[in-house]
Each structure stands twice: as C-alpha cells, then as structure tokens.
C-alpha cells in the first residue's frame, strides 16, 4: 500500500512538473549589467545563437536571452502558440520593469519585436529587426488572407505524418537556403530536427497568420532593419522591404551583402559591428 501511495505521489509530481513546463511560452536567461537588451531568436532557433553578440554586450548591457517553447529542447505548449509567446514577452517586460529596453530579433524574433513595439503598455527604446518582415505570410502565400490559414490543412497534415527520414530531407533542403556556409546549414538543419514537430508545423501557421502591416503606423520608436541580400538580390530585397514596411514612419535600412537569412552566421564580425553601432546611436 505504501508503495502504491508513493507511486501516486510521484505521478502527480511528474504531471505537475510537466504542466509547469507546458505553461512557459518563453524561457529567458539574463546576464550582464546596464541598459536592458532583449534578444529573440528565429523560428526553431535556441537563444544560444546570440552568444557571440552577448559576449560583446554583457559588460555594458543587461542581456535577456530568449528561447521559445518547443525549440532548443524546451517543452512545447498548447496552441495557439505565437499569441501566447507574444503575450508572455509583453508580460515579462512589464513584470521586470524593463523600461526603455532595446529588442533585437531575428526572423520570427524580429516580427515579434515589431509586434512588441506596437504595444502601448510598454515603453521601448528601439528595436533591431534582422531579416524579418511584418507579414511573412503575405510574401509566401498567394491571395493571402489570414482567415484562410488554419491548423487543419493538407500541408500541415503531410508534415506531421512525415517519418524522420523524410522530415530530415525537408530540413536539409530548407537549411541550404538560409546560410551560405555549409557548417551553418548543418546547425540550422539540426535546430529544425530538434524542434517539437507539432510546434514546428502549427507554429508556422501562427507565424504566417500574423500581419502587422497596418500596426506599423503605431510605432514611433527608432527601428533599424538589417536585411540579407541573398538569395534574391539587393534590388528585390529593397523592394520587398519597402512594400512591407511602407506604413512605418521612419526606419534605418541596412543591407547585408553576401549573406543569406542567418546574417549573424554568414557575416559574424560585420553583424556584431552593426548591432553595436545601432545600440550606441541615439
């Protein structure tokens, strides 16, 4: 009887721990001292990607390094995923009184940074958007309409049903377009494979539904955009960003030549210099 009771206690404890993990849309590591900088990675990517930048910043800035639920070994959460991530980051900023923080976000992280900049309840200093758009779905999906983007789609079902070998092939193909370096492509592929599959599939659905183009009118803080020139070429990239960000009153646009989506991996020294210059500017 005693053993049964102990087993029941252990079961309840394990369920409790799992529930706590499930309830955490974001996981944040804090290091350094000074003005707060929040670093949000891209889709499937752990916060560790910011380590080289953090080493440069932590002597002068308090760095809040974010990893999102379902990625980087973190437990998944219930859906909808992205709205919970966004709200949790907003709550984190308010709870920790991160007044005049700077947010640096890559890809999805840049889109999240843009969303946070539209929120009246928090006062940010500036945001740095790294190869990110306010409405990625509008670029990727013909006849874009957020209402038509749903979890239960043939494409999502196909991805969820893929065996490991087929999904690894998909991840390999995706990674090759995201960096110019073979070593970085391998790392990106591994991040995709390590991600919770359901978060990967449905998280993209959340991502593509988000359209912040009209909300850009509500942003008054300085915005710097660092955009990759590859694989589409400088002129097409400039045109895409001009179209997507046309409702933003003012922004500083910086083109990363000879770089694909993961600019911090393709042009690491240049990227660190750009971010430090933006942070030091008024």
TrEMBL record:
Residues 1-19 form the signal peptide. Residues 37-273 form the AB hydrolase-1 domain. Keywords: Signal. It comes from the Bacteria. It holds the Pfam family Abhydrolase_6. PANTHER family: MONOACYLGLYCEROL LIPASE. This is AB hydrolase-1 domain-containing protein. It comes from Tenacibaculum jejuense.
